[in-house]
Amino acid sequence: MSATRVDLVREGAHATKAEVGAFEIQLLTFAPNHSLAEFDVARPYLVVVLEGEVAKRFGRLRWSLERDSLATMPIGAVHTSDFGRRGTRVLAVRSRDTEGDAFGSLLSRLRHVRAAASTAIGWRIAAELRAADESWPLAAEGFVLQLLSAAGRAEPAAARRVCWLRDARELLHERAPGTTTLSELAAAVGVHPVHLARTFRREYGLTVGEYARGLRLDWAMAQLVEPDATLAAIATGAGFADQSHFTRAFRAYAGVTPGRYRELVRR
Known about the structure:
Number of strands: 11
Radius of gyration: 22 Å
Number of domains: 3
Strand content: 25-35%
CATH superfamily of the largest domain: Jelly Rolls
């Protein structure tokens, strides 16, 4: 087996690719502030952030991944990527077959965890991709298997966290456009408010307040389609103190004023 180096500087990235055993490995280095437009995941993969950071957006779901982050990307996980201002290096591992059988059920759903062990193993794999001796493919494959083991063992804790975090997010949706305090939300899902706030922002890339405001503004957008709903009534229903506050928040969120938005959707 041999590593194939691919220069993608014109696209803001450099990649080293290799096939070892049942796996395809990619060591990717992205230039500072590089962005990838929305793309679909045709083959599932596991990704580890070795250095730097990347923000991924899956529709309304946002992730902020940094060093020691490990994520699974199932088929159909359409998303965009925005890389940090100091450059980012990631390791991606796929199965050589299209179904990802080498991973079992590990890549069946979208998730991410903090796992320092995965970064250490990732750097060992990166070192093997640069090695010149004849044993590097076997060594690299062994480290990939260790990486899969680390990812699988991280899943139970992640599943527990995602359970209460998902409940918190669903409560925000259920109560929108009504308002809920951070303390009320934390009490409802059984965690400390500070832990909720930190975990929510890390998982979704927004504070609880920012996410809730977005839900209220989404509700307002739906109301603006109704011909009999006044702007004042919509502002009050969306939980804003006055119409001017509502207008400022709406323009920051949608790029146009509520009145202009109403004109555009009625055309």
